[in-house]
Amino acid sequence: GRLRGDGRPADGRRLAAGRPRRGRRGRRAGEHVRLRGVGEEGLGGHAAGGVGLGREGGGGGLPGRALRRGAGREPAGGRRGAGLRPLPAAGRAAGRDPQGRKVEGTSRSTAARCCRSARCSGRRRRRRWRLPGHGTAWGPQVLRTRLDDAPVAPLKIASGCDRRCSFCAIPSFRGAFVSRSAEDILGEAAWLAEHGVRELFLVSENSTSYGKDLGDVRALETLIPQLAQVPGIDRVRVSYLQPAETRPGLVKVIATTPGVADYFDLSFQHSSEAVLRRMRRFGSTDSFLALIKQIRELSPEAGIRTNVIVGFPGETEDDLKELERFLTEGRLDAVGVFGYSDEDGTEALTLDGKLDADTVAERVARFSALVEELTNQRAEDRIGQQVVVLVEHEEDDDSDCVGRAAHQAPEVDGECVLVEADGLKVGDLVRAEVVDSEGVDLIVRPIEVLPR
User: Fold this and answer.
1) Which ranges constitute the DSSP H helices of 229-352?
2) Which residues are CB-contacts of 96 (< 8 A; sequence separation ≥ 6)?
3) In angstroms, rounded to a whole number, what is the distance separating the alpha carbons of residues 425 and 408?
4) CA distance 281 to 229
5) pLDDT tens for residues 318-363?
6) Sequence-separated (6 or more) residues with CB below 8 Å from residue 225
């Protein structure tokens, strides 16, 4: 893995509707809608959890910066200096334009309403604009379909990042942090529930920042319970929390709200203050342990995972001892260990004190062995407890099923093997007793199938 390396889906896309100008096509790649009768057709991607129409990174059209400068207005009839008429704008670029008169989000329904309400000047008759290939904008919605029938699905809540960690290049290609509206997120959650999803996995580059660009830094604390109340959704899981931004109110919501997994994916990265400062991050071993204590006071069996980077420029043996103390006392459920390597376009590329590859590899091996022992012990501690498991697939060669408990995120945190699982099927939510462990995986025996 390189640096962050958590493999989480975090692709965000934007939609902008506008009239392309000559000579600007292909100047900057970006997703957009150009409407029939206004320009050549193209339809950008949709947020995670479904299938977007069109091609990611589609070239041509009016770049976001030009759309913002133009404030959503174009000369009527293409005559320079002629009367101006408003154009609708949808998506992230439009949302950043303080002069826009008509700004909408990225969903199909809002884009359609935007087009429907756009008006020409008094001298021009109102047009009916069509989304390419799908009839009138106020006709039936564009069909979507899921690529699989898994009972869990990612749900994008934001894209981009405003943090400037010295080792991370994400802000350079994802751009500034932009939250999706709660309306869009809840609408997609309902659609996913209608198509068999029982667990929502909220994804972004930094979920704790959700809502700050909407004027509410505590918006996530409101959104999570709303998602848990969507009919058909039984579990909401939040990913990628920044420890320095994880407020007590957010901890309480995640740890105590019914229907929300008491699961904390905390991006610690290291625990030595000296290393964290060079990473342009905040915190210390003691402050991180205090956060873990706060979580476990509310939910003793909450799942906590993180990633750490070893071999960062200037890292000393004292720094490693601090990290070892944190991991040993923190008793986390899952830890990813990554060795530092240079990343183009990052501040860390220019730092002094670089370590050679052999030293970095040795530190990765050392801490990988440590966290394997610690996380295996944490799994053993769960023997005798009851967990609620979402069945995700059946084993082909026997009657066992495999799923995940609340403390296990998809693909990265281990799984639960349900023995004596005759009659269970994918999508069942099962209360089970932990009877054994194998590494971080749990062996569980079903007690009852919970009602849908």
Assistant:
1) 248-256, 273-278, 285-298, 317-330
2) 68
3) 19
4) 35
5) 999 999 999 999 999 999 999 999 999 899 999 999 999 999 999 9
6) 253, 257, 260
What does DSSP say about strands 84-86 and 73-75: parallel, antiparallel, or unpaired? antiparallel
CATH no. for 385-450: 2.40.50.140
How far is Cα of residue 340 from the mean position of the Cα atoms in its chain? 23
- Name the DSSP class of 356: P
Q: What is the pLDDT of residues 407-446, one digit of tens each?
A: 999 988 999 999 988 889 999 999 999 999 999 999 999 9
Question: How far, in Å, are 15, 34, 176, 317, 374 from residue 90 at the CA level?
Answer: 6, 11, 17, 52, 48
Counting beta carbons within 10 angstroms of the beta carbon of residue 319, is it exposed (0 to 12), middle (13 to 18) or buried (19 or more)?
Answer: buried
Q: Give the position of tokens 């007690």.
A: 447
By three-state DSSP, how is residue 403 classified?
strand
What is the rounded CA–CA span in Å between residue 336 and residue 78? 56
Q: Which residues, listed in sequence order, are joined to residue 407 by a DSSP beta bridge? A: none
Q: Any idea where the domains of the chain sit in the sequence? A: 152-381, 385-450
Amino acid at 24: R
User: What topology is assigned to 152-381 in CATH?
Assistant: pyruvate-formate lyase- activating enzyme (3.80.30)
pTM of the complete model: 0.70
Kindly give, in sequence order, each residue whose CB lies less than 8 Å from that of residue 196, ignoring residues fewer than 6 positions away: 146, 149, 151, 427
Question: Using an 8 Å Cβ cutoff, are 175 and 10 in contact?
Answer: no
Q: What stretches of 213-316 show up as alpha helix (H) in DSSP? A: 219-228, 248-256, 273-278, 285-298
Q: What token pair was written down for 252?
A: 């309480």
